[in-house]
Amino acid sequence: MKKLYFLVILLFASVLITSCSKKDDNPAAPGETAPGIPSVSFKGPNTSSTDQFAQQTKSIVTSFNAYPMLFSGMFASVKPSGGGNNWNWVLSPGNGATETFTGTKNSDGSYSWKLVFNGTVDDVSYNNFKAMDGHTSADGKSGNWRIYEDNTTTLVAEFSWTTSSSGVLSGNLIEYDGPDISGQMTVVNNTDNSGELKIYGQNSEMQFNSTWKADGTGEWHSYDNGLETTNGNWN
């Protein structure tokens, strides 16, 4: 998943560079409140175990959070403009370039989102390039982000999340290499703080699986070509 991690790093680097340059050409109408950019946060096992796989599970879930919180983090300090059913958050990296995040409220209360780049950002030139789009439910408890390769309509990754009626939060990350799936990861957080992590490689073959209980103890399983090769647990 190095390709997608690299994209996330670039986006956050862009935020650090542009955070002091904001645009507010169309301030919100008095009395109107913009919607919050949806984000969700996943938790790994609550353990201090030094077991390699316990720590690996915690680290991977932490990295997983870069995706559901990416866009809320990028534009957290930007004052939105617009009003009614349409809102914009704009970053200005300089030299006339803009990164515009747009939220449009649909008739059912859900929101459609997109991120558009214009101008030269990090030495790459863009002309109305849609870097991302997505959709979230009215309550923000489910949704998806689709991230595209530079200046193309080719998907790099898709992140989705759902929250069940009982409060179970599930997230799924799919990474693409052209038309093919190059990797996939799922994280499940139960309401009692137990959970599960699954990692798949090409051809949707299982590579790693770990589960943890509410008290932080857990177990892990490693696979080769979809077949389990070794396993263990941590306390």
Class inferred from helices and paired strands: mainly beta
CATH topology of the domain at 2-26 and 47-89 and 141-234: Outer Surface Protein A, domain 3
Element string (H = helix, E = strand):
HHHEEEEEEEEEEEEE
Intertermini distance: 29 Å
Helical percent range?
10-25%
Rounded to an integer in angstroms, the radius of gyration calculated over CA atoms is 19 Å
Your description of this structure?
There is one protein chain. The protein has a domain at 2-26 and 47-89 and 141-234: Outer Surface Protein A, domain 3 (Alpha-Beta Complex). Helices cover 15% and strands 46% of the residues. The two termini are 29 Å apart. Mean pLDDT is 87; it is low at 1-24. The protein has 235 residues and is mainly beta. 29% of the residues are buried.
